[in-house]
Amino acid sequence: MGHSFLGTEKNGTFVFDPHAATFKKTELSDDALCNSVNCITGYGHIAWIATKNGVFKLDIDNKLTTHFNSENGLPHNNINYIYYDKKQTLWVGTHSNFLSSINIKTDKVDNKKKTLKKFMMCSFTGLKL
After folding, report:
1. What mean pLDDT do residues 69-95 have?
2. Which of 18, 86, 92, 94 has its CA 20 to 30 A from that of 123?
């Protein structure tokens, strides 16, 4: 059975343990903005968590996290939306006029050179990792 995630506005991320039928808190950071979750997606053993202080890549099997924010390439730290596509690209919508992507194999951040006047990014999928 896969993992299910619950993101909260103030208390971070929780992973459902199907064997114990309980949610367990997953620590991403001590920072309050990192514990304000806007969106979660993923595939396989990797979960992507959008927060008010960047995007976290969580390797569930190895319990490793990678933090993406404005210090390593994103145009803004408040991440509104993330979308994982079939080409293994994570699309990132922030509070800026850029559409960003993260190559999940190389962890390279790319900001589209053209500024976008308006765009809407939504995903209505269930996360089963």
Report:
1. 92
2. 18
CATH number of residue 102's parent domain? 2.120.10.80
Q: Total domain count for the chain?
A: 1
Predicted model pTM: 0.83
pLDDT number for residue 5: 87
Residue-wise DSSP of 33-102:
GGG-EEEEEEETTEEEEEETTEEEEEETTTTEEEEESGGGT-S-S-EEEEEE-TTSEEEEEESSS-EEEE
Segments forming the whole domain that contains residue 46: 4-111
Residue 116 in domain: no
**Does 78 map to a domain?**
yes
Is residue 49, in this structure, part of any structural domain at all?
Answer: yes
Q: What angle do CA 75, 49, 17 make, to 5 degrees?
A: 175
How many beta carbons lie within 10 A of that of residue 111, not counting itself?
16
Nearest to 50, CA basis, from 65, 63, 64, 40: 40
pLDDT of residue 79: 94
